[in-house]
């Protein structure tokens, strides 16, 4: 097996969905008996040394994606909720019917933005906190 460069690995990860990436992280943690949370927490103080603006940006590293309302295209929203989470059809429908509810909790800013864009594209009203 050929060894992949860092850039090649990152290119492969860009093609994964959030669920696939989450499953990979869990498998990686189990295989190497580590947690991905530790390096992220250790990196935050180093990045925050850049000034007050950098500190404020680093303080909030985890975001919640809240479904406020499903809108007119409820079936599309349910499909997006299922794609973003590991929920089954009934659980995703219950989440959408029970809005406002969190769809994703404690995710990175880019993941939260992608989830918000996907849900809004399906017709939902979404907030990121």
Can you describe this structure?
- By secondary structure, the protein is an alpha+beta fold.
- Helices cover 60% and strands 14% of the residues.
- The protein has helices spanning 6-14, 18-32, 37-48, 52-59, 74-84, 89-97, 109-121; strands at 63-69, 101-107, 125-128.
- Strands 2-1-3 form a three-stranded antiparallel sheet, covered by helices on one side.
- Helix 3 (37-48) packs antiparallel against helix 4 and helix 5 (74-84) packs antiparallel against helix 7.
- The model is unreliable at 38-57 (pLDDT under 50).
> Which word captures the global form?
elongated
What strand order characterises the main sheet? 2-1-3
Secondary-structure content class: alpha+beta
Overall pLDDT confidence: 77
Q: Tell me the β content.
A: 5-15%
Ends: how far apart?
A: 43 Å
Biggest sheet, open or closed, and with what strands and sense? 3 strands, antiparallel
Put simply, the count of helices is: 7
Helix content: 55-70%
Q: Can you count the beta strands?
A: 3
> What's the alpha carbon Rg, rounded to whole Å?
17 Å
Order of helices and strands: HHHHEHHEHE
Uncertain stretches of 5 or more adjacent residues:
38-57
Give keywords:
3 strands, elongated, 60% helix, 129 residues, alpha+beta, three-stranded antiparallel sheet, single chain, 7 helices
Brief sketch in words of this structure:
The chain has 129 residues and is α+β, with helices and mostly antiparallel strands.
């Amino acid at each position: 097996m050929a060894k992949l460069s860092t850039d090649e690995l990152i290119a492969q990860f860009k093609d994964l969905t959030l669920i696939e990436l989450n499953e990979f992280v869990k498998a990686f943690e189990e295989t190497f008996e580590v947690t991905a949370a530790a390096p992220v927490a250790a990196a935050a103080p180093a990045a925050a040394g850049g000034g007050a603006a950098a500190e404020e940006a680093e303080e909030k590293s985890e975001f919640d994606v809240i479904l406020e309302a499903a809108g007119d295209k409820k079936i599309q929203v349910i499909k997006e909720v299922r794609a973003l989470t590991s929920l089954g059809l009934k659980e995703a429908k219950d989440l959408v019917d029970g809005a406002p509810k969190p769809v994703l909790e404690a995710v990175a800013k880019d993941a939260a933005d992608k989830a918000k864009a996907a849900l809004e594209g399906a017709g939902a009203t979404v907030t990121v906190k």
